[in-house]
Write a structure and sequence with these properties.
This protein is α+β, with helices and mostly antiparallel strands and 208 residues long. Helix content is 37%, strand content 24%. Strands 3-4-2-1-7-8-6-5 form an 8-stranded antiparallel sheet. Helix 3 (98-108) packs across helix 6 (168-181). The chain is globular and about 40 Å long.
Length: 208
Amino acid sequence: VLGIAVVIMGLLAAWGEGSLERIQLELSRAGWSNLSALLESLGTASRAIYLPSSATEFGTVMALVPLVRPEPPDIKLPRGFAIRYGREGEIGLLLYTPGSMAVSRCLGVGAIGSDAAASLTNCLINHLTIARRVTVMSGSDGITVVVNGSRINELYSNELVKAVLGSPTASLVAAVVAESLNSPIVIESEEVRGGNVVVRLRAVGHGA
């Protein structure tokens, strides 16, 4: 229904530059459009909660889209698409995101540790080479990440899925920070300033 195979193909092409990658990227848009239509039919535009790999039984960074209450789970989530969790029967959609694949690649080469700034630099710049510079500022109101020169292509235009998951650049940032801090993360806001993508994050739940 969601065209997951096509979506994953789009993730592989997200930071490519060749003609084949561009074709794959165009094909992947159908999958993202289907996901957007599903979210619209469910009447949800809740911000996704980016979960570290320790929050899932299968050890993968995922995004949980709450359908009832926007709170992180207090159990390890099993594989599945529509997940029931929590003491009050909370329901959510468990999604692979652009950040899921990026974190998987970076974990494989030891590019992600407990320092969020170092992890973002090692993962996005040194390993994936999809940004020129990353600056991280932490404060009492959350974490602000400035990504300069992002090379990640737009995957889903202005679809509803972008409001839920954030842009592909923001998705990668949120996933890396969630894994680094071992904490659920929500994208509070993002904006483009010239050649920079400014992403504001907030830790939620037990790791906050």
